[in-house]
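Here is the promised in-class demo. Please do not try to memorize the tokens; focus on the logic of going from shape to residues.
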């Protein structure tokens, strides 16, 4: 840190960013001389920075000598949009956690597997102990049941062919026919089927290319005494609307 509490800034980085901004303002591209005049950066320094930015893919130099934005910037823009959507969705999850005092989960059914992509919990309400892999325990979790409800009966049957239901607790439902033909519900429940003492509720999130769900877990004793369904459905609907505006939810590699 510099004196007076001000941050130490790297001048060359500042200049490079100013050049990127100046190039972005010219849809047809622009020359080094124009950029030098536009930014107030000395021409030799401008050339040096432009060569570096071209080498790294953040700018592209055309045959006529003009510079335009490069593919690396497009990649950053796409990543920023995805991260922005993740941040907005996570904000909804955090609000739901605080409102219900419950751990909150976001999950997808992707490439034939249950994948939990985000969890928001707290020391007061920690996430459920995943002693059994969610991929193999879809039959016993509200998350899995909700995701599977978004599939066809044939797809559900295929899932259970690959992951035969097993008893995880005395309350686990393992009858294949019941699992495949279970009717759809706006909110799916798991009452101590995955873990004794823990209940889970899940609601579908619409707008994704594959089944997606928002879920909460909490002590099973609270299920009868508290109304969790309405806030959960409201939060799932809010995430659905964000997806409708922004597009498909970004997924890791």
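The designed amino acids, position by position:
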């Amino acid at each position: 840190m510099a004196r007076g509490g001000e941050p130490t800034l790297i001048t060359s980085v500042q200049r490079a960013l100013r050049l990127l901004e100046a190039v972005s303002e010219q849809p047809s591209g622009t020359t080094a001389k124009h950029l030098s005049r536009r930014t107030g950066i000395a021409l030799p320094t401008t050339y040096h920075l432009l060569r570096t930015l071209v080498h790294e893919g953040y700018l592209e130099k055309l045959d006529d000598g003009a510079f335009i934005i490069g593919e690396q910037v497009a990649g950053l823009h796409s990543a920023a949009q995805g991260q922005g959507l993740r941040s907005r969705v996570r904000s909804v999850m955090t609000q739901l956690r605080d409102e219900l005092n419950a751990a909150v989960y976001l999950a997808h059914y992707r490439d034939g597997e249950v994948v939990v992509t985000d969890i928001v919990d707290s020391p007061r309400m920690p996430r459920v102990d995943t002693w059994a892999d969610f991929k193999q325990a879809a039959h016993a979790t509200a998350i899995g049941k909700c995701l599977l409800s978004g599939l066809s009966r044939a797809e559900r049957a295929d899932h259970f062919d690959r992951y035969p239901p097993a008893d995880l607790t005395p309350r686990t439902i393992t009858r294949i026919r019941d699992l495949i033909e279970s009717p759809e519900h706006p909110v799916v429940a798991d009452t101590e089927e995955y873990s004794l003492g823990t209940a889970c509720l899940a609601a579908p999130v619409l707008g994704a290319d594959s089944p997606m769900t928002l879920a909460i877990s909490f002590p099973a004793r609270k299920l009868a005494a508290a109304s969790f369904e309405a806030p959960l459905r409201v939060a799932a609907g809010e995430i659905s609307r964000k997806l409708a505006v922004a597009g498909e939810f970004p997924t890791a590699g």
